[in-house]
Design a protein that fits this description.
There is one protein chain. The protein has a single domain (about 5-140), classed as Globin-like. It has six helices and no strands. The longest helix has 28 residues, at about 115-140. By secondary structure, the chain is an all-alpha fold. Helix 1 crosses helix 5 (about 90-105) and helix 5 (about 90-105) runs antiparallel to helix 6 (about 115-140). It binds protoporphyrin IX containing FE (HEM). Protoporphyrin IX containing FE (HEM) binds near residues 42, 44, 55 and 96. Protoporphyrin IX containing FE (HEM) binds near residues 38 and 84.
Length: about 150
Amino acid sequence: MSDADAALMEASLIAVADAGIDIRHALFERFFAAHPERRESFISVDAASRRMTDETLQMIFGLAKGEGWVWPLVAELVFTHRSYGALPIAEYDAFIDMTVAQLGLAAGPAWSEDSALAWRQHADALKTMIRKARAEWATAMPAGAPQIA
Ligand code: HEM
């Protein structure tokens, strides 16, 4: 948790909002360009892209602020995503990295080395938390757990 990181991160979120840029469109194009086989997992890209983008940003920002709700939300996310097929951990990592990268592109002059570092550090914490959730589900509920790797 870091107040300085959270302030930098909030400034980039505000810059993107002020610029009126909805990063989900470019983000999902980029994700499907890297993982074309995943497109058919989505029934509604329009519906899912809103929530996946918002919630990924909220979780990363929440981790910077030390919010206690992030862990239960991540545990739930990992479990509900079982319904969408076997999602490799590398695709979670890629989605998270691409979310931060698209935010940076949209933030323009509000993006700095420091804000990039803050986002990346807490994005890495989210990746670690997703791994922990997958491992804990595998221990707690081996029959129905999401895959670990
Ligand atoms: C931290 C990362 C992620 C978050 C916060 C997240 C969040 C969500 C949420 C909230 C939904 C429900 C959307 C709705 O029904 O309105 C959803 C759906 C979905 N997510 Fe994610 N997600 C993440 C990563 C991923 C990754 C990496 C993949 C694929 C590799 C993925 C694949 C899907 C699919 C296939 C759906 C169903 C969409 C549909 O039925 O149209 N998600 N996600």
